[in-house]
# Entry
Amino acid sequence: TAVHLSNSVFKQCNSLISLGRRRNEFMHNVIHVAMLAKILFHPKSKERTLEQYQRLRDILQYEFIFMPDSSQIDFEKATKQLIGLNLVTLADNVYKFVDLQVKDFLVSLIDPFLITYMDSWQFCISYMLELFSIVRA
# Structure
């Protein structure tokens, strides 16, 4: 029975590890378009979109592998890909996400990373505020 249980556990663990590895490969392939989906919650100018893309890329640099000095190229490639798939339009120098279901799906992929950072920042800020109030007392 112990051998049977360990085989069952091994099979389940192996499946979970395989799914996790594929999830990481998938995220690596869609991270740039997911970042744009998050940024394009509302239509934005090309300059503002690029600025926010670079800022988000800086935040996520420890979660994903980004090639050095490729921000502009990655941005252009991702926007061309989204425009080519008719998911985003560029009119009068303004990007707009037009397929809201795809946008919501892409945002759902990146949100867990951003929520973790936000929770960490909120904890650090509250901890620092407590520390300063103790020091003042």
Remarks:
- Residues 78 and 84 are 10 Å apart (CA to CA).
- The chain is about 75% helix and 5% strand.
- The longest helix spans residues 2-39.
